[in-house]
Design brief:
Length: about 220
């Protein structure tokens, strides 16, 4: 199959459910989905995901990769938003959990000992504590975009409502906010799903291939 399209990520936690969603949409019958590792790039493509919106961040990333690789590109961007914190961390989710975004709090100011293997747990706990006595409503937000070398492009946004649990549920399934995000209609955190159920939920609900994206990709070949 010569219809190549590159998924602009090397993150295994993103790739697995995305590939499942891709195949579930039947797009593997139309495209050869390749990832960045397949291309053996000589240098990493750097860009700032700074639009302040998951959908437009995904679009910006797809455009940059399409231009640099001269290949159709598809990009995804996801994170969480807390109702009580005016949508924080939003597109700064990765920075929030790494500690580089200090909009709401500074891990150093909290005097957290982030050495050793429990640093991720401590960061997640600190973020959960910030809404512990507030409205624990939150949502998982997912932006997806596809760009072709002829300039045609499309993007979409998917939001899944839910709430933060009262305490972290640390398991080997998922990571960071999966340890406390309870999707609406479910009585448990994402981390309490079995790995199989987590991947199925992620590919079908959290970050699926929206119908308008699917139609666009198939129509572009005609």
């Amino acid at each position: 199959m010569n219809n190549k399209i590159v998924i602009a990520t090397t993150n295994k936690s993103k790739l697995r459910p995305f590939i499942m969603a891709w195949e579930r949409a039947g797009l593997n019958n139309y495209y050869n989905l390749i990832n960045l590792k397949d291309l053996e790039l000589s240098k990493e493509i750097e860009l700032d995901e700074d639009t302040g919106n998951f959908e437009t961040d995904a679009l910006k990333k797809a455009e940059e990769y399409c231009k640099n690789l001269n290949l159709p590109a598809i990009s995804i961007d996801r994170g969480i938003e807390f109702a009580a914190l005016n949508g924080w961390p939003g597109t700064k989710t990765k920075e929030a959990f790494s500690g580089s975004d200090k909009t709401v709090f500074d891990f150093e100011a909290l005097n957290l000992d982030l050495s050793g293997g429990e640093a991720d747990i401590k960061r997640s706990q600190a973020i959960l504590d910030s809404v512990k006595d507030k409205d624990r409503g939150m949502k998982s937000v997912y932006g997806i975009a596809a760009v072709f070398t002829d300039g045609n492009k499309i993007s979409d946004l998917v939001a899944v409502q839910g709430k933060a649990s009262a305490e972290l549920k640390i398991t080997s399934t998922g990571y960071f906010y999966d340890w406390f995000f309870i999707p609406e209609g479910y009585g448990k955190t994402l981390s309490e799903f079995s790995e199989e159920d987590y991947l199925k939920f992620a590919s079908e609900i959290l970050w699926p291939i929206p119908e308008k994206i699917k139609k666009f990709l198939i129509t572009h070949l005609k």
